[in-house]
Fold:
Amino acid sequence: MLKYILKRIGLAILILIGVSLIIYFLIRLMPVDFIQNKVNAMNQSNTVPADAVEKLYEMYGLDNSGFKGIVKGYFNWLGALAKLDLGKSFVDYAPVAEVIAKNMGISFAVALIATIFEFMIAIPLGITAATHQYSFRDYLVTVLAMIGISLPSFFFGQMLKNVFALQLGWFPSQGTLSGAGSATGLALIPDYLAHMFLPILTVVILSIGPRMRMTRTNMLEVMNSDYIRTARAKGLTETKVIYKHAFRNTLIPLVTTLAGLLPSLFSGAIITEQVFGLDGIGNIALNRMMQGDIPFIMGYNMFLAMLSVLGVLLSDLMYVIVDPRVKLD
Amino acid sequence: MEEKNILTNENEVLLDTAPEVESAEAVVDTAEATVTAEIADESCETVEKETAESAEAVYEAAESETEAAESEIADAETEDTEVPLDRNVKLMSPMQMVIRRFFRSKLSIVGLVMIVSLFLFSFVGPLVYTRWGEIELDESGTVSYTTQEIEVVGEDGTVTIIKQTVERQEKDNYLAPPSKDHLLGTDEQGYDVFTRLMYGGRISLSVSFIAVLVITVLGVILGGIAGYFRGFVDNLIMRICDVLMCLPGIPILLIISTLLEAAEVDAKYRIYWLMVYLTLFSWPGTARLVRGQILSLREQEYMVAAEAMGYSTGRKIFKHLVPNVMPQLIVQMTLSLGSMILYEATLSYLNMGVKAPYAAWGTMINIISTNTDILQNNFNVWGAPGICIVIAVLGFNFVGDGLRDALDPKSRR
Structure:
């Protein structure tokens, strides 16, 4: 087991190096240059001397845009990354890791609550669809799941915003906090929740489909197996057969996906946060990306890649732990 | 390789035999083809087994197999009556059965209708409805008068109110409500929404088709090579897949989009370039599917036969292995058509894809990300393209799902 884990971690590091190579070279090719933008803005009064600009570039390791310079910059950046230093954001004048950590909270809260609801709704629906295969209920669940998969997040989010925030006025349409009140501490929680309600609803409805289908497929597979027939032959009640015998086995894939999902809770939903103007990490990243904040883009993309590598790793490990039939080579 | 398998239900007969053939050459081509007999009774349900081979191979096989099948039917142990089966039996190629099963599901018919009507709407529509062009402004604006009150404070401190009438000449007839002239009204610029919907559909649909095609070609070639050669090549390709799968999609595309902007790519073709780059990051899914299938298929007897015949590697991979992956591949392609449309729409919504004045469904929705007035009051401007996106994606998902069920040899319905 230990050997397996070590091997997987080694592989994960290799993957991350590959990812960092691609991201770094792509970003170095990017023409949106924050320093240039800034200098241009300041230069309207011709106050910035040319050598100061060069110094700025040098400071950020962007002075040489030739091939050699980029390679050198890459290794410098990688060296810093090994020390867990993601560099300093151009826009925020703060370490990238700090900026990410600061804005992650709200994204994490949205994702966590959404995931809890998602599993709570999707699993029972998936089970009823499977136990009543080809019935009206099954078709209804399937069609609803499909519609959820097919909705574009921006369109659905805007629609919810239009109906519930703008037309009905039940929820605030923009932002993370209303700010009007002088409340602090725990009293802020209802305000946060009111702002988070619609984003959470969007995420839940959009991602419930795949989960439901997965539960249904697994459940169907289990329901067709021999031991279920044996359980029925023994004369067990249908509830016992379904929830005590069948459902336990569908838990294996569910738990593995849950483990795989955990890291992605931190990644933020770019589009949803943009629609609702939520100050989560996704929305911040989108803004920084438009502004050409190179260290932040690098850091954020690497952060996302690390999360997905970690997700795969966790779900594979979970699979080994949960399912006793799986043997390691 | 002979495998007789007869399932007899009250009104279901399944015959599933590997073909009997004379030459080794034919063994390779018709291997795995199935002969399925079905009682001519229209109401009966057929049960099929075995993966369908490529249609051609099956047709080839079907002719030579009729005899073989008949003799085998006689040989087979049937507990049923003495009625000669061949009279009641209608031969169906696997392709025909797949089509039959596909159309049995209502959802897949609905999906097909959705897609076909969207295609007609986008590609034939602009030829029929020529009232407005894609980038033709409605300049029949109206003149409006507004009266303003202006307070003027005199030198001695008295306040006089002057009424001033301002004539506003709007050249463009923007945000017009739906009418006979503009079926879905006009947008904030004065373009006809209905017309732009048709042109936007052209872009969304063609872009996703191109992307899926490229993804499939890349995925089949790389996955085929990885699965066939195994060992080092497989390892290398799979590690590249791992890396590409870990790349965050939308952020990377945003970066590439700014790169394209710098390269001054024509606004009309930018989205095509963007999708080409998207394909470079999206083939691993298909490659993994193909590889997994080929890993199991290459152990089959007909591959041993192909080996014995001394066929070239390319022929073995692309003529014998890849056709057997086709069912899963077709399903994957249909489903990814839907997700490509979503990708394109999202990029356009973020103003990274198709840019004004050209239309794409996502671009048409882009306006509401900044303008809440339009979001609140002009559903016709942004709702219509959104509904089109949903219809397109839903249609492809329905069809893909129907195909999956129809092509799945395990499905019994």
Summary: Chain A touches chain B through 50 residues (CB under 8 Å). The two ends of chain A are 10 Å apart (CA to CA). The mean pLDDT of chain A is 80.
